[in-house]
Amino acid sequence: MAKIVGVHGINQEFRGSNTIYDRWLPALKDGLERVGARLDSDHEFRCAFYGDLFRGRSKSAMGIPNYDASDIDSDWEKELLLEWWEEAAKVEDDIKGPADLSTEKATPRRVQKALNALSGSRFFGGVAEKIVISFLKQVGGYLHNPDLRQQIRGRIVEAIDQDTRVLVGHSLGSVVCYEALCQHPEWSVEVFVTLGSPLGIKGLIFDRLEPSPVSNLGSWPGSVKRWINIADAGDIVALEKELNPLFNGLVEDKLVYNGSDAHNASNYFTASETGEAIKLGLIDE
Q1: Which residue of 39, 112, 159, 272 is 20 to 30 Å from 32, comparing CA positions?
Q2: What CATH number should be reported for the domain whose range is 4-54+146-279?
Q3: What is the pTM of this model?
Q4: Nearest to 210 by CA among 182, 187, 184, 186
Q5: What is the pLDDT of residue 60?
Q6: Tens of pLDDT along 260-276?
């Protein structure tokens, strides 16, 4: 069965476990090859999938709703949007960031300026602003909708079996994996790999984890023996590149360079650092 399980992040609602598997498997193999390792069988890798739970049922068949600035209606959404804008300005010279991150000053005009900046950024690749807003709402939907949260975690549970030794979470998937591991300490997962993870965003994500952090420290994820967190310095989603201080100094943080597509999961998988991390779970003791 699957020794390695991969879990995707946001913006995958029109794909499925097989299409993501077809994208990730070659990249995973390349990352392992860089460190002198390989899979004995392609069946040792499996992808859990939950993107369909975000797939709309639009009567007009228009797909993603035509969101605009007025649809960013919660302080949580405004704050994360401003955080993304500020981070984009740090890594892209042609973007001017916000002068103030206070949500009290997140007027409709400032929200629109943030959307304009992010939609035109290299990171978001010139996507329409409605897609940026859709990203926000998917992250918020997971954190603020208990039924959806449990449904998504359930997809991870279905993918894990007694042979699973490595769990890899990309983007929002790293949050889902973390919570699932905490909820299931009986699992045999020994290596946890987080790629482009937003887990360390204080206030917005870290402080809303289940279980809740205690004294500003997060719980250790279940049966895991090694946790390797991998981020690109230009990855806007991974606002906090170092998770080690938030989890009792036990996380191994590593920086990689993914080129212009900093958050791309396949780029993360081909990195030798990711290969080394996954290799740890393939070594028979």
Answers
A1: 159
A2: 3.40.50.1820
A3: 0.93
A4: 182
A5: 46
A6: 899 999 999 999 999 99
